[in-house]
Design brief:
The protein is of the alpha/beta class and 196 residues long. The chain is built from six helices and eight strands.
């Protein structure tokens, strides 16, 4: 169990998280929903250790391996789809295994060896999802992971991601209730806090 207790964080004089209590059950998916500005991404950054709260505690993260899909793809532009995924995997991982993961997420054979800068936005998103979910991780944070996917590609990537998250503690940040339902997630709603 990963627990946040009384987590408060201000950014630029604005309260983003205000005494937040939240439990992420081991091996379960929690969907975090709420309007823009309610602190969803900030909470993700706290869980990933990228942002330190002003007060409160985050418990249960010691020794936890973490992986994330951010709102931005954050790919290495000059590397291929295969090369980007291999960066996060142990040395000696077979290229054929990486290619198989990318194909399961809906990437076609022709796109696997191209530099990711030459891929479409939807293809790049698929690479970002696979790169986050391919390594062993105990906590997976998915921040709007399916944004920019087309109608045909979206369901394939969502099905892939759901399968890869099975048994992992997962935080899914989304505006789409259907995505939360697909993952069988417990839904937590965050409300924005007034300025001050």
């Amino acid at each position: 169990m990963i627990s946040l207790r009384g987590v408060t964080l201000r950014l630029g004089g604005r309260v983003v998280l205000d005494g937040l209590d939240l439990d992420l059950a081991e091996g379960q998916v929690t969907a975090l929903m709420g309007p823009n500005g309610s602190g969803k991404t900030t909470l993700a950054r706290v869980l990933l250790g990228l942002t330190v709260p002003d007060s409160g505690q985050v418990l249960g993260l010691d020794g936890v391996r973490r992986a994330a899909v951010f709102q931005e793809d954050r790919l290495c532009e000059q590397l291929s789809a295969v090369g980007n995924v291999r960066l996060v995997l142990p040395r000696g991982t077979r290229v054929a295994d990486v290619r198989g993961e990318l194909r399961r997420a809906g990437l076609d054979e022709d796109s696997l060896a191209k530099p990711v800068r030459d891929l479409s936005g939807g293809q790049r998103r698929k690479v970002a999802v696979v790169r986050a979910l391919a390594p062993e991780a105990d906590l997976v944070v998915l921040d709007e992971p399916f944004t920019g996917l087309d109608v045909d590609g979206g369901p394939v990537v969502m099905t892939y991601a759901r399968a890869r998250c099975t048994g992992r503690t997962t935080l899914l940040i989304t505006h789409d209730r259907a995505e939360a339902d697909l993952f069988g997630a417990r839904v937590v709603e965050l409300a924005p806090h007034p300025t001050g």
